[in-house]
Amino acid sequence: MTVTLADILSAAAVLRGRADATPMVPSPHMETRYGQPFWLKLEMTQPIGAFKLRGALNAVAKLPEGISGVTCCSTGNHGRGVAFAARERGLRAVVCMSELVPKTKVDGIRAFGADVHIRGRSQDTALAESQRLSEEQGLAQISPFDDAHVIAGQGTIGLEMLAKQPDLDMLLVPLSGGGLAAGVAAAAKAINPSIRLVGVSMDRGAAMAASLEAGRPVEVEEVESLADSLGGGIGLDNELTFAMCRDLLDEVVLVSEEEVYRALQTLYYEDRLIAEGACVVGLAAVQTGKVTLTGPTATILTGRNLDMEVFTRVVTGRDVTLGDMTIEGRPYEP
Ligand SMILES: *Cc1c(COP(=O)(O)O)cnc(C)c1O
């Protein structure tokens, strides 16, 4: 089972006029500094503040008639997308999340009229709750990443990026469960087989990276991160994204919390943009020299549903404490 260009084109037809075709803007700073044109795809400007609206709208649109409601587990943004899409179709939505999910994200989901169930300290417990609701109440379950319609929805980002810049040499894609990377890679490689796809995760609790390394889906410990949207496992019974990421990603790169901190500052001071930690992992991969640019490159700024208090600390160069770890503050230096 996989997701093809035809599935992604079908998703694009569902999304037309509903999820915005977001701007892709140049980063003069990155181009000057690293010598190649560099593009930022502004998915944080979607109506829910993140790209996950695409997959959620496509998956909810493709549910059969007569369904009573939907449920999902989420690190925040998928829940927001599902809540939005369910409200649009007049369906009840129950979003299951762990205690690690920041309060702004919980509030955002409730604001779209969904019920929120908080369970445990990992995505796995949230997933178990969502499965229980699905079985007991007949709600349709929509995986945040391991669902063909979700992957196809996210893949429409790849279509738009290549339509805007057909000569892209490399795409840097934030990587968690891999729905985004799988969809974008499927679209981009179908259009231009020689494009390089690099997945980027944080170096603590990167489940897809650990799974690709092990050659099969494995579990990792979840920890708090500046890139909180990249937390969570890929599911030991992963059906789609593990194989697609294995087959379509050319490389996976990991960045540290300090590197995410610095990239958030760069995006703010140089590009004057505000985004979640999860979005800047691609910038961090370049800044640290872990990825070398060999032609026009683009990354996806995936969302902006961040904790503004943490963000303010980052841009003013103060310490940030995440669970048992403290990132030592330092002012931005170009
Ligand atoms: C979900 C999410 C990601 C990662 O997407 P996956 O499909 O799980 O790999 C990246 N950034 C943001 C803001 C997200 O919400």
UniProtKB/TrEMBL annotation:
One of its GO terms (molecular function) is threonine deaminase activity. It comes from the Bacteria. Belongs to the serine/threonine dehydratase family. This is Threonine dehydratase. One of its GO terms (biological process) is L-serine catabolic process. Its cofactor is pyridoxal 5'-phosphate. Keywords: Lyase, Pyridoxal phosphate. Residues 21-301 form the Tryptophan synthase beta chain-like PALP domain.
